[in-house]
Amino acid sequence: MLTLPALANLLTPLLAADAGDYFGKSVIENLPLFLHGIGMTLTISFWAALISFVVGLVVALLRVTPSGGLKIVAVAFTEFFRNTPLLVQVYAFYFGLPKLGVNLHLQLGPFEVSDSFAAGTLGLGLYTGAYVAEALRAGLLAVPKGQTEAARSLGLSLLQTLRLVVVPQAVRLVLPPLGNLYSAMLKNSAILSAVGVADLMYQADYVNNRSFRTFEIFSAVALFYLMLTLPLGFLVNWLENKFNPLRARRLRLRGARV
Amino acid sequence: MTNSDPHPPSSAAPANGTASAVSPRGKKSDGRPIIEFRDVHKRFGHLHILRGVEETIREGEVIVILGPSGCGKSTMLRCINHLEKIDGGSLIVDGIDLGDPHANVDKIRAETGMVFQQFNLFPHMSVLENVMLAPMKVRGTPKEEASAKGMKLLERVGIQAKADAYPIQLSGGQQQRVAIARALAMNPKIMLFDEPTSALDPEMIREVLDVMRDLARAGMTMVTVTHEMAFAREVADRVLFIDAGRVCERGTPQAFFDNPQEARAKDFLSKILKH
Ligand SMILES: Nc1ncnc2c1ncn2[C@@H]1O[C@H](COP(=O)(O)OP(=O)(O)OP(=O)(O)O)[C@@H](O)[C@H]1O
Ligand SMILES: [Mg+2]
Question: Each residue of A205-218: pLDDT tens digit?
């Protein structure tokens, strides 16, 4: 129950600027740690997004093109990764793959990749990839069949038809759901802290365990995540405009007149 | 109905002595066969749609296909450019047997232009880009050349002023004319039209039929499914009447419209000519 005295207690640090203590002190003092965490969250998200897009595209194409055996593999992949918890998948990769003799600790040229980073990124990438595949498939199927027939009847190959006619139209349909998926993925990346990836969530836990200023720390963390996901929404809007030839043209024309 | 002679030597020949059997562009009955249906069958699941189609279409002929709804007119057209695979018999288009699993289908498609009821222009490309796409990507035509040729074709269908517009900015009739230009850009030997004016408002039908008439006059081999009887009468060299999955009657438009032989053809004509 939030009683008045309790509320006052909560707000005191906010107001007591002179006490040498203030709301957010633990965040300000540990800012470098938090910034490192944000950097790591972005790094994980970048690689997981890349993995998920490539995987999602391949799986979606396997599902829309007529080839029986591969279609089953694609369906199995999608259903497995969509219907098991992300945390379980990350644990399975982190603890399971080394048992199968897969070395997750990688040295790629000058870059050292920790096993937790590799397992976490792979897990997050595949999990998101299953959703991306579904979104892309829906987009591809939403392009009218007459478009494919017109392209094929002009002599374009199946691949050319996909690349030049179907995909460019599907992109516009697919951008909003993809935007949602990638903002969900960015937030889901917090789960990777459970296997020791030093992301934003991990640093927050670390600072919290030493200072116990839970409320201010996680308020700040929520704000940080917002700062990461909100621009994604704007990016999607911008891309949507860009892939709409009519709207893009009108904008260009308007710009030219001004 | 058994076909003892599925290919009457020349349906365009003046069997009844009327001059109308010879088209104004000269006799086409001795042109090279370019589309040959030989006992063609097509099934969709348990639906047996084409049941032994026999027909020879010669270079330069203008064919109009008529028949009741659902009789397989579209299916017949779509078999010619292999949008549908035939299940039996053989279908030879420009010397290539489409029944052969190793047939070069893309080549047939590139040489066969198709115009659809719903236009099917690519909405993410401008009018000119629609027309340039296939020559550039399939034939490797350089961009400048494709663009110049595209403009010429747009001029031919009377729509060069809209070259930079996008399809949704055009009326139905304009879109269909662009679709015709797009098909012509591949220099097809055959043009297939599947009810090209059925989705159009009455005032736009004419502009599309005019383009098709010009094309016919220029000697293009055309196979058209249409309900425009006046067009069929004026432009077609031959009419094919399809029923029960076969060519049930064939002949010059004059012979077919004025003196149909088969009961089903008479029945069909009495229904469509009533309104
Ligand atoms: N892909 C398909 N799958 C199943 N049935 C089909 C398919 N395409 C066509 N059919 C069926 O085959 C029959 C013939 O179709 P088709 O489109 O060739 O007829 P049509 O003569 O062009 O008719 P309409 O005048 O209505 O256009 C119809 O009954 C149709 O429902
Ligand atoms: Mg039809």
Answer: 999 999 889 999 99
Handedness of CA B178, B179, B185, B189 (dihedral sign): negative
Domain ranges of chain A: 29-257
CATH 1.10.3720.10 fits domain A29-257: yes
| Residues B234-261, mean pLDDT to the nearest whole number | 94
Convert chain B into a string of H (helix), E (strand) and C (coil).
Answer: CCCCCCCCCCCCCCCCCCHHHCCCCCCCCCCCEEEEEEEEEEEECCEEEEEEEEEEEECCCEEEEECCCCCCHHHHHHHHCCCCCCCEEEEEECCEECCCCCCCHHHHHHHEEEECCCCCCCCCCCHHHHHHHHHHHHCCCCHHHHHHHHHHHHHHCCCHHHCCCCHHHCCHHHHHHHHHHHHHCCCCCEEEEECCCCCCCHHHHHHHHHHHHHHHHCCCEEEEECCCHHHHHHHCCEEEEEECCEEEEEECHHHHHHCCCCHHHHHHHHHHHHC
Give the one of A153, A165, A243 whose C-beta lies nearest to B122's C-beta: A165
Of A154, A172, A246, the CB nearest to B109: A154
Does the CB of A157 have a partner CB in chain B at under 8 Å? yes
- Confidence label for A3 from pLDDT (cuts 50, 70 and 90): low
- pLDDT tens digits for A33-56? 999 999 999 999 999 999 999 999
Least trusted range by pLDDT, from A71-80, A107-116, B77-86, B88-97? A107-116
Measured by CA distance, the residue closest to atom 26 of ligand 1 is B69
Which residues lie across from B221 on neighbouring strands?
B190
The span from the CA of B240 to the CA of B64, in Å, is 6
